[in-house]
Specification:
alpha+beta; Nucleoside Triphosphate Pyrophosphohydrolase; 7-stranded mixed beta sheet; two-stranded antiparallel sheet; 4 helices; 24% helix; globular
């Protein structure tokens, strides 16, 4: 069984251009479809997670609740629901689309994230049961507490998460 993962290549208007193996797309900085999920609890606190040490980039940094890529043939909403279960161990309802944006960031290891990132939000009453291969730690913070943490220690947060907070919160 193949362990290769593929991402959907798109143009700036989200028109599909084909598929590419995930690491190759990141080596070559190809624009691809992605999503970032923001999970809130009933106290209006945001669930954030520290990326596992084994992640291919941004390992050990704090980020939004869940982020990934849809598989070829999968809708972005299906991907969000699938990955929230795989990464966080929570079942979510249909998430609400907050917006989307394109970003490009090259990391120290030479990989480049060039994503058309759809940002979704959902409220969940479930306690996360994170997958240790994906998530080292989770915590809930108010938006105010989160912004304070980002201002004090910006290097401890992923690039795209800081963009999401600046653009949408």
């Amino acid at each position: 069984m193949s362990t290769e993962e593929f991402v959907i290549l798109v143009d700036e208007n989200d028109r599909e251009l084909g598929v590419c193996e995930k690491i190759q797309a990141h080596r070559e900085g190809k624009l691809h479809r992605a999503f970032s999920l923001i999970v809130f609890n009933q106290n209006d606190e945001m669930l954030i997670h520290k990326r596992a040490k084994g992640k291919y980039h941004s390992a050990g940094l704090w980020s939004n609740s869940c982020c990934s890529h849809p598989k070829p043939g999968e809708t972005i909403t299906e991907a969000v629901i699938r990955r929230s279960k795989e990464e966080l161990g929570i079942h979510i309802s249909i998430p609400v689309l907050k917006g989307k944006f394109i970003y490009k960031k090259t990391f120290e290891n030479g990989l480049t994230e060039h994503e058309l990132d759809y940002v979704f939000e959902v409220v969940s009453i479930e306690n996360p049961q994170p997958n240790p291969a994906e998530v080292e730690e989770v915590k809930f913070l108010s938006i105010q507490e989160l912004k304070k943490e980002i201002n004090i220690n910006p290097e401890q947060f992923t690039y795209w998460f800081k963009e999401i907070i600046n653009r949408f919160y």
